[in-house]
Amino acid sequence: MKKLLSLIAIAAFGLTTAFAQTPATAPAAKAKTVVKKEVKTTTAPVKAGVKQEAKKVETKTTTTAAKVKADGTPDMRFKENKAKAVTKVAGPTKKDGTADMRYKANKAAAKKN
After folding, report:
1. Which of 7, 10, 29, 89 is positioned for an S-S bond with 99, CB 3.0–4.6 A?
2. What is the dihedral of CA 95, 96, 99, 100, to 10 degrees?
3. pLDDT score, position 9
């Protein structure tokens, strides 16, 4: 009886390890292929009597003091944005420097913001 149970246990273990080794992600990896498109530009031939004008492309870059993220909020990684974020609390503060909301002056300031 012990031999029969041990053979069944060995067979079950062998089958589970055999099925565990098959790669399940192989089809998904092929779906993520990147297609690169190549763009060719051609120039029209210039006639002898026609003068070709060079077009100037102007790019305007705005350098503002406050650097912002894509969603418009200030990016706190920059020093100038960190300095602007410091606000003075109207009323009493807690030990960590935040406004103590038990006081009326701090509650009124919070409603304005």
Report:
1. 89
2. -40
3. 92
Neighbours of 95 (CB within 10 A): 6
68 strand-pairing partners: 74
Q: Looking at the DSSP assignment, which residues form a beta bridge with residue 31?
A: none
End-to-end CA distance of the chain: 79
> Which of 99, 98, 69 shows the shortest CA–CA distance to 81?
69
Per-residue pLDDT tens, the chain, 113 aa: give them. 889 999 999 998 888 877 776 565 655 445 555 666 676 766 666 666 655 565 666 655 555 556 899 998 889 898 888 887 777 777 889 998 888 999 988 888 888 76
Distance CA 72, CA 61 (A): 16
- Helix, strand, or coil (residue 59): coil
**Count of C-beta atoms within a 10 Å radius of residue 99:** 19
d(CA 22, CA 26): 10
